Amino acid sequence: MRFTITDDDARIFSRTFYNDLAGGSAVEEALLQARLTLLDTGSGPWAVGVPVLYTALAEPAAGFSRSTGTPAIDTHQPRVEASALPHVEGVFQGRLAELVTLGEHLTGDARPLILTIHGGGGQGKTALAREAVERFAHAWSGGVWAISLENLPTREVFVNQLARFLGINTQEVTDPAEIERHVQVRLIQQRTLIVLDNMETLIEAVEKNDAAALHLVKYIRQLPGPSVSLLVTSRVHLQWNGEVSLELGGLTPQEGALLFRQSAPQRAEEVAIAMAQQLSQKLEGHPLSLRLLGSAFNDISIPLHAFVADYEEQLGKAENKYENEDHRHRRLYACIDTSVRYLDGNLRSLLSGLPVFRAPFLAETAVSIFNPQAEDTDDAPSPIHDQLYTLWQRSLLSREIVTVRDGTLLFYRLLPTTRPYVEHYLEQDYEQETLLARFGAEYAQLAKFLYDNLDKSAAAVTIAQQAGEDLEEGSSCVTGMQQGYYLLYWGWILQRLGITRRGLQLLERALEIAQGQDQSLELQALSNMATVYWGIGQPQEALKLYEQSLPRPQGLGRPARSLHPAPSRGILPGTGDIRS
Length: 580
Description:
The two termini are 55 Å apart. By secondary structure, this protein is of the alpha/beta class. Helix 11 (287-298) runs parallel beside helix 13, helix 14 packs across helix 16 (383-393) and helix 21 packs antiparallel against helix 22. It contains 24 helices and nine strands.
């Protein structure tokens, strides 16, 4: 006799049975435990029967063809794009209770629309979010996509990046409203987790009635639904409907002591756990402060008790030095002060200039800006490489290694928690005007490189996506024809990445600069604009621009055949999406 059981009982049985199997239990033992669980928690007396999940025959049944071979288990791995969340180095210390809570919310049957990890700066919100993504992504069949809102993207940029993650070809679908509709359709189909890091930046901009922020937040607020949840890190609560908040406090003294010791690997045996626990208590278990002090202690030779005394002296000075900051910031800045005091002059100098970058940056880019005379070869690398690595080891920078099909890229980034200190309190070693001029010149060259390689290099695509904010900013740091070519390159790159409207605006600006001044730039701008208009379904406008791009030899009344009729990127639509 065969009976059906309720969905709730089916879930109870499946969860117990498969968890035991995954833990190494035999099938018979897993079945027994599943039946006992049903007896204790199920809605009916199913333990008297044998739930059937599969059948097996001693001999093959007739009428079915079979082929010999070895069994293969094809496990589904949802796509995860979390490079916006810096990877945690070393062992992830503590936060077990918080991870259990996050796991229950992110893998349960009833998942919150918005799950906010709330805490102060440097408390480890982003690190916890990254750890949660790595542990619980399996529960999101549509994948997990993360974005940092430290530097607010426009709504168009946000939607295009999400669309590309979902596999939408933004070269074929170019209208922003249409892209949003495609995104909504994809999100309905499978459970997807969207991670928004540094959400407080958006909330603060909305409170100031920033038009772009209001436009972006209107879109984000419509995303959560039955198949979409938001995992948010923020220093402020969103206070949106459906928000569930996880308050993130400090580490326990034991966890803090272990983090301090882990941050000082070369002197770990010199770290007395009892003293490290006392230090953790003084810091209220603040993870970034513990890493800053631990990595500084690792690089010096004084004993731990003298080092702790030095920190306490800096904390006393911080009460007056940072009187306009709240208590937590004064304590954090005292830790940064202590760390910076043990940097050599070259490291302090480099650190003082790094706020010029708003986005992740390549070490090679930093070399060109801060050490332009260096040849920077494999045999004679610039010292900037080692200096960036040291600043990362000292927890003053984050870094992310991104692997694409044609290489591996290493990006550094100044932490949003340490940026205000470096900008406002660290002595600056670079004249700002000179630094910005170098910045603009280097990113002009980078834009040209990406323009030439975007269609044939996944690395070029990744650099354009990661460094987008700085590539945008760099155009304002150059002038004249250099700015015109910069806008030509960056505008074309943007439209190839699917940000068509902004790309077209920059191409139009490049054309304005070129007209009557630089015929080559003018013809390239006209030709590229024509290609864009053709791609977005305006062939008449495209043909008109192509006609203007044909050079007119003197003495003839109509255009001659152009020697450069169309860029190699092609006028024809459907050239395919750029994928990393």
